[in-house]
Automatic annotation (TrEMBL):
The active site is at C118. Residues 7-129 form the MsrB domain. It holds the Pfam family SelR. Belongs to the MsrB Met sulfoxide reductase family. HAMAP family: MsrB (MF_01400). Its EC number is 1.8.4.12. SUPFAM superfamilies: Mss4-like. It catalyses: L-methionyl-[protein] + [thioredoxin]-disulfide + H2O = L-methionyl-(R)-S-oxide-[protein] + [thioredoxin]-dithiol. This is Peptide methionine sulfoxide reductase MsrB. Keywords: Metal-binding, Oxidoreductase, Zinc. Binds 1 zinc ion per subunit. The zinc ion is important for the structural integrity of the protein. Zn(2+) binds at C46, C49, C95, C98. Its cofactor is Zn(2+).
Length: 145
């Protein structure tokens, strides 16, 4: 039901890098993003609209340089559509709510779902679990170089 927002709306709301990935189906460089090696507990929300998309419980290290998940946080929050660009047959994944580009899903996941949701860090934002932070042990590792 959500009305399609126009490019100007998103250009205003997002950084140029986020705009390119989320609204123009770009791909960030592998190992360049914020979350590919982040294993904090929490919910990964859509960078554009805040909708919960993935949970850290389903995140695994695929070694590909992008955050990878084996399932969406709830059925239907991630939309899929065929992507035959670059001479490859892939399935693009998008936020079902705002149509933001997330990445691609591949049928070669190592876990029981058999799926690998390969997501751009720029497409999501980690919302850390409150339950995890109330242990009082603030061991937040952030690599900023
Ligand atoms: Zn969204």
């Amino acid at each position: 039901m959500s009305k399609e927002k126009d490019d100007n709306y998103w250009r205003d709301k997002l950084t140029p890098e986020e705009f390119h990935v989320c609204r123009e189906a770009g791909t960030e460089r592998p190992f360049s993003g914020e979350y590919w090696d982040c294993f904090e507990d929490g919910t990964y929300r859509c960078r554009c609209c805040g909708e919960p998309l993935f949970h850290s419980d389903s995140k695994f290290d695929a070694g590909c340089g992008w955050p990878s998940f084996d399932t969406e946080v709830a059925a239907g929050v991630v939309a899929e559509r065929p992507d035959n660009s670059l001479g490859m047959q892939r399935i693009e994944i998008l936020c079902a709510k705002c149509n933001s580009h997330l990445g691609h899903v591949f049928p070669d996941g190592p876990t029981e779902t058999g799926l690998r949701y390969c997501v751009n860090s720029l497409s999501v934002k980690l919302d850390q679990d409150e339950s995890a932070s109330q242990s009082g042990d603030e061991s937040i590792k952030k690599e900023e170089e």
